[in-house]
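Lay summary. Proteins are chains of building blocks that fold into shapes, and those shapes determine what they do. In this project we predict the shape from the chain. Here is one chain we studied, written as its sequence of building blocks.
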Amino acid sequence: MSDDLTLGERLRTARRTRQLSTAQLAERVAISPSYLQKLESGARRASPSLTLALAKALRFGPEVLTGQPYYGEPETEDKVHAVIPELRRVLLCYDSPDELDVAPRSLAVLASEVDQVAALRRDARYAPMGPLLPAVIAELTHVALTADGSDQQKAYWHLARAYRAANSLAHKLGHHDLSHTALDRIHWAADRSGEPLMQILAAYLKAGAMIRQAALGSARRKLLALRGELERLQPERAFSADASAVDGAIVLKLAVVESRDNRPDRARAYLDEARSIAGSLGNQDSAAYDLSFGPTNIKIHEIHAMIDTGDTEQALARLAEWGTGGAEWAPPTATVGERSSHHHIDVASAKLAEADRAGAFAELQSARRLAPNHTRFHPSARETASALVRAEMHPSNDLTSFAAWAGI
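And here is the predicted shape, written in a compact code that computers can read:
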């Protein structure tokens, strides 16, 4: 059954559950009581950083305010949630897996399937990716536990990548407990892979989960420690191209921490450093260790940081400045779907904040074309679409159709 409540309505319920007045909650997050009342009524929309701050102040997970996971007719049709019970089982039995009906496929075949899974994850194609995960994880687990030498390490390396896809699927669908379990499994497999950069990636992903839970200080410390570990592994910054790309991804994540913590100057400093790292790599977009790093992702993060700190006007001005032929800048067509759709979802919320409802809807449509699964399950996309429907006395057929597709 679809959840028809808005974030503001969920916020009001959560506040009353904690028996807080609007003045008491507003004081905890350093906003005015009148602003909080506007959030609860739907007259104003909360930025991602404010949503996290409110959830933390209420001692709830952010999913209580966003309404995840979403269950409705669209989710029933594509069966995207159907794989979750099986994933729970294989992640629970990670060190003592069930017996297989047939022998596992060869490591080379399983590695190729993990490559396919990773590509689907990057393009946010969760519906086709999900059914592949339980089997490939189960088979790789058997191979990793029974092989030896370099084959065993390779099996664990690919198993860490498969667990990463499970983490992404669970997080995007709103199953945050399963996402956290998958993070532990990534660490477990990475530690056995004998690959230092994979171990750093595992810790980087955990820092991302910390950010999503508003544990910004913990995330900051972990990310800074990872940069120190990279320096220890490759002193004097004689980094390989892969290590530099991983370092750049860590720096961009630090920029997210600072923007979520409402420290725009620090966020800009990290963005400048990321541009310097990208320059050392020839200003080419990279997918090292299944991470997106390079000029495109830096621009996406720069816009995100502005929107996150409430500077929507400047974010839209920057897109116009970067654009050509009168069109705003958008990620190149070669950009992975998850990154591109995330950008358009962010810009949709910014345009709505600037009262450009037509522009906001156009951005949501772009996000849907690029990555429909990601768009449907993204809290900000759903909140923007809901706000657009409520703002129109007579919504267009296209808008009502979009809302029905999103399960709003």
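What the prediction tells us: The chain has a mean pLDDT of 92.
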